[in-house]
């Protein structure tokens, strides 16, 4: 049985289609991410599952039973909010025990379970503090403990790591992933950070303008993007269209080529059988630590991004300079043919 | 960029003030502090000081001999009654105002559209633009034997209910306009906006996600109201109650125009210093609301009402 199932779900605000005919099936025990730029409908989808919004049309099933029309407090899902939404007037322990309290769990049991939940997020001993006395990362953990203490079958996370600094975010990413494996709960994770989605998820749905462009494993999403939007939003891609696509692939359809799959040369080298080559002028060189990024302008005016891993200092001496004509080549296998999504 | 020009006198003063922030602060604060210190605190202290002067009943004159007699006199049964009567009314008005104000404030803050909110703001504040005396006089007419309220009650065949209410000891009286019930209605009418606005302000600041989190964790709307909204609204209720409580304690117009005979603290002060000319006793009476409000504030503070401010 699927944990959450959307069937032709739409949510309109007047003329604005925040969610437009979305159908997805999220499996039980899955770490599922909803990825997209702001305003793409991913958070609205999460709120539809939590019950803060009701769909304009379509059906939402949670563990097989129809959830459309049910208020949030009758759904077996819990949410970790983007702003944590802790109750400012309660101690941390009461915050965590709140879900058990309103369900009528006795005082001894609920405090014991709340303590356990706090220990699970490594916050034992913080129970007597008020939320205002905690750091952002600690509040985030309290919000997580407060949701998990209810043992929900589905946990919704609305950009929970957005407010944390990079190091803390990476640490929380691996802890969340570990926690999800350990508990076996379905996690539905909303984020606009593609690297976060790729590193944590079993599957990722990429949202654009209220629609889903692709649902796939992180690996397939990166290696086999379906649409130009996915190719450019997940990682960096060169999407080539029109004449250029026709010349290189023999087809009108656009294709994408990842910057790290392209090699540069300043003179004509023999091409392998499956390789293609284009000609361009170097515009810009960016040193990025692990790699160096080159921006080329091709003869037809398109720009092409090329990324080369930085090897040894000795090789750095002969870096090409802007204005220099270069040849770029790549294997045909690295090209991914794309299709434009159907117009909405 | 323009080349730096020679500093003008204005600029020299500006940079001098910038370098001496404490002097700058002193310059800014002195006028308001003088105003506040002399006009408010100073005059209040001088008034309280006069509470120690002696009033000669015989010659009806005030002498500067110091005595505690005026403060002792506050506890005479007649004066003590005045204190209890005023305090009881202030508490009743405050409780009832909070009860009435909360739903209105909640609707304004969380339920209605921006347009409707503006309508409500005007609706709540409009009565405050009209003269207070005019409104109280209007109420004496509304509450009188041939007034609108009686007429309305008889339309609904509720004459019996009004009469029964007026029979109740402590609340009742001959007519609505001479009963404690009538006085209570007028007080509540006049001070209600002062309760609505602070509660509305507090409720508006509640992040929607906190209420959603409560529902998300399984709380029914009633549980969310009890465990989240009400506790977080306490500072607003406290702020509003300070207004309704202290304004009722100090009022001297309503008790004279509506309700049964008998002094309130305010009207007693008015009578002592105006009709009788006993300034020391009037000064002693003014101490009562100050003490009561101080006690009230300390109770409210102990209940944690200001923790969230």
In short:
Chain A is of the alpha+beta class. Helices cover 28% and strands 32% of the residues of chain A.
What does this structure look like?
With 344 residues, chain A is α+β, with helices and mostly antiparallel strands. Chain A folds into 3 domains: 1-76 and 152-225, P-loop containing nucleotide triphosphate hydrolases (Rossmann fold, 3-Layer(aba) Sandwich); 86-149, no CATH class; 238-337, OB fold (Dihydrolipoamide Acetyltransferase, E2P), CATH 2.40.50. In chain A, 28% of the residues lie in helices and 32% in strands. Chain A contains 10 helices and 18 strands. Chain A has helices spanning 42-50, 92-102, 107-120, 136-148, 166-183, 194-200, 218-223, 228-233, 242-249, 313-316, and strands spanning 2-13, 16-27, 31-35, 57-62, 65-66, 77-80, 154-158, 186-191, 203-208, 211-216, 238-240, 255-257, 263-265, 275-287, 291-298, 303-309, 325-331, 336-337. In chain A, the strands form 4 sheets. Chain A has a 6-stranded mixed sheet with strand order 6-7-8-3-9-10, sandwiched between helices. In chain A, a hairpin with a 2-residue loop joins strand 9 and strand 10. The longest helix of chain A is centred in the middle third of the chain and has 18 residues, at 166-183. By secondary structure, chain B is an all-alpha fold. Chain B has one domain (70-302): MetI-like (MetI-like fold), CATH 1.10.3720.10. Helix content of chain B is 75%, strand content 2%. Chain B has 14 helices and 2 strands. Chain B has helices spanning 9-19, 21-50, 69-73, 77-111, 114-129, 132-143, 148-155, 159-167, 180-205, 208-216, 221-250, 254-257, 265-276, 279-302; strands spanning 54-56, 61-63. In chain B, strands 1-2 form a two-stranded antiparallel sheet. In chain B, a hairpin with a 4-residue loop joins strand 1 (54-56) and strand 2 (61-63). In chain B, helix 2 packs across helix 14, helix 5 (114-129) packs antiparallel against helix 9 (180-205) and helix 9 (180-205) packs across helix 11 (221-250). Chain B is globular and about 90 Å long. The model of chain B has no long low-confidence stretch (mean pLDDT 89). Classes of the chains: A alpha+beta (344), B mainly alpha (309). At the A-B interface, strand 6 and helix 2 of A face helix 10 and helix 11 of B.
């Amino acid at each position: 049985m699927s944990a959450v199932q959307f069937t032709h779900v739409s949510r309109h605000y007047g003329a604005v289609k925040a969610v437009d005919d979305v159908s997805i099936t999220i499996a039980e025990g899955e770490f599922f991410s909803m990825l997209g730029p702001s305003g793409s409908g991913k958070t609205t989808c999460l709120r539809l599952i939590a019950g803060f919004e009701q769909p304009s049309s379509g059906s939402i099933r949670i563990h097989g039973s129809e959830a459309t029309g049910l208020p949030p407090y009758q759904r077996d899902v819990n949410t970790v909010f983007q702003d944590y939404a802790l109750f400012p007037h309660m101690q941390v322990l009461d915050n965590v025990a709140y879900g058990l309290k309103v369900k009528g769990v006795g005082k001894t049991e609920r405090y014991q379970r709340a303590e356990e939940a706090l220990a699970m997020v490594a916050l034992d001993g913080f129970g007597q503090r008020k939320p205002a006395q905690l750091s952002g990362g600690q509040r985030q953990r309290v919000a997580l403990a407060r949701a998990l203490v209810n043992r929900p079958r589905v946990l919704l996370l609305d950009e929970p790591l957005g407010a944390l600094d990079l190091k803390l975010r990476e640490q929380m990413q691996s802890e969340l992933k570990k926690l999800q494996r350990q508990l076996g709960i379905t996690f539905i994770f909303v984020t606009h950070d593609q690297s976060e989605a790729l590193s944590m998820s079993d599957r990722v749905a990429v949202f654009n303008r209220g629609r889903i462009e692709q649902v796939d494993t992180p690996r397939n999403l990166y290696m086999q993007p379906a649409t130009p939007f996915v190719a450019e939003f997940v990682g960096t891609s060169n999407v080539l269209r029109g004449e250029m696509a026709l010349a290189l692939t023999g087809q009108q359809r656009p294709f994408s080529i990842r910057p790290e799959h392209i090699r540069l040369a300043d003179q004509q080298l023999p091409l392998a059988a499956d390789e293609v080559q284009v000609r361009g002028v170097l515009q810009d060189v960016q040193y990025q630590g692990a790699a160096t990024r080159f921006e080329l302008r091709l003869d037809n005016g398109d720009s092409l991004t090329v990324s080369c891993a930085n090897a040894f200092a000795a090789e750095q001496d002969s870096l090409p300079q802007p204005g220099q004509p270069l040849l770029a080549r790549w294997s045909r296998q690295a090209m991914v043919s794309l299709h434009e999504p159907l117009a909405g | 960029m323009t080349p730096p020009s020679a500093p003008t006198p204005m600029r020299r003063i500006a940079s001098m003030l910038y370098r001496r922030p404490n002097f700058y602060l002193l310059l800014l604060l002195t006028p308001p502090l003088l105003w506040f210190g002399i006009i408010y605190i100073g005059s209040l202290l001088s008034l309280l000081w006069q509470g120690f002067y002696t009033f000669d009943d015989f010659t009806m004159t005030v002498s500067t001999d110091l005595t505690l007699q005026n403060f002792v006199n506050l506890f005479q049964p007649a004066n003590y009654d005045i204190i209890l009567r005023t305090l009881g009314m202030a508490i009743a008005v405050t409780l009832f105002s909070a009860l009435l104000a909360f739903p209105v404030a909640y609707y304004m803050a969380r339920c209605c559209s921006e347009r409707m909110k503006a309508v409500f703001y005007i609706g709540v504040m409009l009565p405050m633009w009209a003269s207070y005396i005019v409104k109280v006089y209007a109420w004496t007419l509304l509450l009188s034997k041939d007034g609108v309220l009686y007429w309305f009650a008889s339309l609904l065949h509720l004459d019996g209910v009004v009469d029964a209410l007026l029979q109740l000891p402590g609340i009742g009286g001959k007519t609505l306009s001479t009963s404690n019930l009538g006085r209570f209605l007028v007080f509540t009418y006049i001070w209600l906006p002062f309760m609505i606005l602070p509660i509305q302000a507090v409720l508006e600041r509640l992040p929607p996600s906190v209420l959603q989190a409560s529902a998300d964790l399984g709380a029914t709307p009633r549980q969310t109201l009890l465990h989240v909204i009400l506790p977080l609204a306490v500072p607003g209720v406290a702020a509003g109650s300070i207004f309704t409580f202290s304004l009722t304690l100090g009022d001297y117009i309503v008790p004279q125009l509506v309700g049964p005979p008998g002094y309130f603290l305010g009207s007693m002060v008015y009578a002592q210093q105006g009709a009788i000319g006993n300034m020391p006793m009037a000064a002693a009476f003014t101490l009562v609301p100050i003490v009561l409000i101080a006690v009230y504030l300390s109770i409210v503070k102990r209940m944690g009402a200001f923790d969230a401010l």
